[in-house]
Amino acid sequence: MRIIRIIGKELVSVKENIPFNLATIISPLLFLLAFVVMVSGGITIPVETQPASSESAFLQTTTNCVAPDGTPYLKLEEASAEGAPDGRSADRFIVEEEPSISENGATGTITHLVNDVNSNMTKNYANRLTGALVNYINENREANTVEVIEETRYESDIPWDESFAVSTLVFGAMLAGLLFGQLSMTSEWENATIKLLILSPCSAAKTATGKVAGACIKAFVAGAVLVGVVALLYDRTLISGLWLVVALCLMYVIFASLGFALGIAVRSTMTAFLVSLVISLCLWVAGGGFGDLSYFGNAAQMVGSVNPATYALDAVRYAYFGGVVNFTPLIVLAVGAAVTITLVCMLYICWLKSERAIS
């Protein structure tokens, strides 16, 4: 009964920090919308050419080199002058010798003039030029020596922006759990009720459990709003709503517990918000929020193996996109939730003993 009262008290305290409570919804929502707008469609890179595309068979073929969704990889524009770019325009492809394809091989000379100090853009230009050349060679040969057979993980390609939107739910779960967990303690400091909490006859385990449970309920409401926004943005049916609910709830328990522990030391609501934002963002990126960790090397994969965000992302993506059933992410999150709530209760008991001894 006391736990229920503690939970009720935590839910009523929402009105004390309405701006920060709304931040658990608005922050990931702004993050989501900003990236959705940026990557809602394919990206066509402009490039200058010499000569004009109409004067080169290779360049004419390049205009037909497109992404799976039909977006052209390159937008060809005739260079206004010969020579190097002027420093304010795009990269330049110069067809020095028109590619010639035969069964004996391919010959030709194409010069790529780089006009960008961004190494990622330089890589994209080079990759798309290479892709255009491979496409041109394949179209002009009677037989190819390489055949690519795709074995897809999902029934259909998943747009990058939709995958990003789904992964943002995990970022929102971490932010909400951490912030609401911390607010459950910072409110005691700011309302000058911390002495009453320390001297409360209620058992420490019940108090910690009640506060974490209250934080989880508030985080669940924030998460439901974000799930609703994703549903409005994309017409996709959940493969398993149960997986989504279980994964997010376990994340709420883990991070509300961690937030509660941090709240013992953090006495400012503003500090709590900044700490929650930084930690959740770092863990989300390190867990594969921007893509599979195999892209980032062994060090990133080692960090990801102990990062709860990694397993939450796997579980949430399965809930939306399906694929191979794997219970490991949910099992790891369940163990993590049990361990964190237990350790936090022990930490809170030790903190109470030390504070009562001082008092």
Task: Describe the protein.
This protein has a four-stranded mixed β-sheet. α3 links the parallel β1 (45-50) and β2. α1 (2-12) packs across α7 (204-233). The chain has helices at 2-12, 18-39, 57-62, 119-139, 160-190, 194-198, 204-233, 241-265, 269-286, 298-305, 308-321, 328-358, and strands spanning 45-50, 74-78, 92-102, 105-113. It is an alpha/beta fold and 359 residues long. It folds into two domains: 2-38 and 159-358, no CATH class; 45-140. 33% of the residues are buried.
Which key features would you list for this structure?
single chain; about 350 residues; alpha/beta; 2 domains; 4-stranded mixed β-sheet; 12 helices; 4 strands
| Total helical elements | 12
Question: What would the average pLDDT be, to the nearest integer?
Answer: 83
Given helix and strand content, the structural type is alpha/beta
Q: In which range does the helix fraction lie?
A: 55-70%
Radius of gyration: 27 Å
Query: Major β-sheet, in short?
Result: 4 strands, mixed
Report the principal-axis shape.
elongated
Q: How much of the sequence is in beta strands?
A: 5-15%
Ranges where pLDDT stays below 50 over 5 or more residues in a row are none
